[in-house]
Amino acid sequence: MRLTIRTNLAMRCLMFCAVNNDRIVRKHDIANLCNASENHLAQVVNTLAQQGFIETQRGRSGGMRLARPMDQIGVGEVLRAFEATLPFAECFDPEANTCPLSEACLFRDALSVAIEAFYRAMDDWTIGDLVRDNAALDRLLALPGGRGLPICGRGEARMPPPEPRVAEPRIPAPDARVS
Fold first, then answer.
1. Do you know which Pfam families this protein is assigned to (predicted)?
2. Which of 22, 48, 87, 176 is placed for a possible disulfide with 147 were both Cys, Cβ 3.0 to 4.6 Å?
């Protein structure tokens, strides 16, 4: 199984918006940081907005942000929005199916079970699960000047890691015994 580029870009876009949840983000910033074409990303953004995953704002200070909290956007829901209309194999498309085995073949049934199991597994994940407490992703996607993500839902902003401490040599205390 392989996800389409559009689905992959949709997930990148949603994770970008979640990491930068305190602001409206621009398509240009997402394209730069996620290695995507702005034209291709525009199509993905349009679908994400139509499906209710993001809100868009036009104009000079326009951009996009998540339409609902990141914990209410299921990964399975996003994948279905982009992948469900595409036939997984030729036999899943009645108009294009030329397979001579389709009337007797059980492979399609096996694939259907596997695909549904995949989506059910993805239903257990949310965008919040993918970005929360993910410092590496935060470093890659956070725009300068942002507040960062809340830690464990407590509303505290992520702070950069503290500078490593340099151990100072310990001087042994003088012996208190008097001889």
1. Rrf2
2. 22
Q: What is the DSSP letter of 74?
A: B
Q: Which has more confidence, 45 or 22?
A: 45
Domain-located, residue 20: yes
Q: What residues make up the domain containing 34?
A: 5-141
| This prediction's pTM | 0.74
Residue-level pLDDT at 158: 41
Sorted by sequence, the CB contacts under 8 Å of residue 158 that are 6+ apart come out as 135, 138, 148, 149, 150, 151
pLDDT, tens digit (0-9, with 9 covering 90-100), for 43-94: 999 999 999 999 998 888 789 999 999 999 999 999 999 987 766 666 666 6
Cβ contacts of 9 within 8 Å, gap of 6 or more:
34, 36, 40, 41, 44
Token pair for residue 147?
């507040």
Task: Kindly state whether residue 165 falls inside one of the protein's structural domains.
Answer: no
According to the model, what pLDDT value does residue 46 have? Answer: 95
Over its C-alpha atoms, the chain yields an Rg (Å, rounded) of 24
Residue 82 lies in a domain: yes
CATH number assigned to the domain comprising residue 19: 1.10.10.10
CA 107, CA 99: separation in Å to the nearest integer?
12
